[in-house]
Amino acid sequence: MLPLLSDEDVPRSITDGLCQHFPGVDVLRVQDVGLGNTPDSIIRVRPL
């Protein structure tokens, strides 16, 4: 499974479509994990 975190400006329809077409992708939206309105500079990409 490939976990991805999407920005709050990405439409829900896009993240839902990604999950439908690519079942091996796990897309979390920042607002779903309590990071809504967090500046991009605070959200860091962590290596797996």
Write a structural description.
There is one protein chain. The protein has 48 residues and is of the alpha+beta class. The protein has one domain (1-48). Helices cover 21% and strands 21% of the residues. It has one helix and two strands; from the N terminus they run E-H-E. It has one helix spanning 12-21, and strands at residues 2-6, 25-29. The protein has a two-stranded parallel ribbon with strand order 1-2. The longest helix has 10 residues, at 12-21. It is globular, with a radius of gyration of 11 Å. The model has no long low-confidence stretch (mean pLDDT 85).
Could you outline the blueprint of secondary structure elements for this entry?
Elements: E1 2-6, H1 12-21, E2 25-29
Parallel strand pairs: 1-2
Put the structure in a nutshell:
This protein has one helix spanning 12-21, and strands at residues 2-6, 25-29. It is α+β, with helices and mostly antiparallel strands and 48 residues long.
Summary keywords:
48 residues, 21% helix, alpha+beta
Molecular shape? globular
Backbone structural class: alpha+beta
Spatial extent as radius of gyration: 11 Å
Total helices: the number is 1
Domain count: 1
Q: Into which percentage range does the β-strand content fall?
A: 15-25%
Mean pLDDT: 85
* SSE string: EHE
Secondary structure tally: strands = 2
Q: Could you give the distance between the termini? A: 11 Å
